[in-house]
Amino acid sequence: MLVEYLLLRMVFQVILLSTDRWAEKDVNPALFSRELMRNSSNFLNDAEVNRDPQSLLMKAHAATSSIGSATVIIAMLEKTGTLKIASEGDCGLKIIRKGQVMFSIYPQEHYFDCPYQISSEAVGQTYQDALVCSVNLMEGDTIVSGSDGLFDNIFDQEIISIVSESPGVDEAAKALAELARKHSVDVTFDSPYSIEARSRGFDVPWWKKLLGAKLIGGKMDDITVVVAKVKTVAVPEDEGGDIEQQQGNEQGIAVAVASAEQNEE
């Protein structure tokens, strides 16, 4: 008897963030991001990629001719529940299970607020510098991924609350983006970014400290959010399932793309 399953409607998620320095050189930073996205989509089912996110990043980057740079995270979910991830820079990904964050991707950076970036320039990082890992997911797990504009402005407990209270993943993504935007412009909000900055030695001048002041406030930045939920995990053949007969042309992967522009969905 075939094991019934539902494909999760994701997971090729690529989240990008361009740098301000390109604007200073009169370069549109979105062009690099958009071309990288198009190339990633085009190579998604390439035989050489073989559903490997790092290989996909390699091919997409090699085919991108626009000038610019970006941080990026690519995650691919297999029908068996294995989420494969390649992350370059300070985008993030969290897995929420039963009301708790049970897995997180942390930033790659040269120093505080200077993340790794994949770039059109030879001096930038390449696919080989990506953080590569995998995690086994369960039915009901929620995947929340986004640019640093999300995670620098929202605490884990806020993410958990919004995900649990939202009727669906679309609503959760919109609510997270809106809260991140609200916090980013709030100069009185003691954000994850300001807390991290203080822990790295950044703060107000000493004389303001004497008056009881400290470095606080959100971080204005591009905000990109992708939320997905695992519906059903297929049982591998050696565990009693007969998924070989179900495969056909389906690979358990769908596509969702988010650009480097201000994106609140």
UniProtKB/TrEMBL annotation:
Q: Which family does it belong to?
A: Belongs to the PP2C family.
A single GO molecular function term of this UniProt record: metal ion binding
Instruction: Tell me the first and last residues of the signal peptide.
Output: 1-23
* SUPFAM superfamilies named in the record: PP2C-like
Recorded protein name is Protein phosphatase
Q: Is Metal-binding a UniProt keyword of this protein? A: yes
Q: Which UniProt keywords apply?
A: Hydrolase, Magnesium, Manganese, Metal-binding, Protein phosphatase, Signal
Keyword Metal-binding appears in the UniProt entry: yes
- Write down the chemical reaction(s) this protein catalyses: O-phospho-L-seryl-[protein] + H2O = L-seryl-[protein] + phosphate; O-phospho-L-threonyl-[protein] + H2O = L-threonyl-[protein] + phosphate
Residues of the PPM-type phosphatase domain: 1-230
Required co-factors = Mn(2+); Mg(2+)
Please name the InterPro entries in this protein's record.
PPM-type-like_dom_sf (IPR036457), PPM-type_phosphatase-like_dom (IPR001932), PPTC7 (IPR039123)
Q: What is its EC number?
A: 3.1.3.16
Q: Give the matching PANTHER family.
A: PROTEIN PHOSPHATASE 2C (PTHR12320), PROTEIN PHOSPHATASE 2C 26-RELATED (PTHR12320:SF60)
What stretch or stretches form a coiled coil here? none
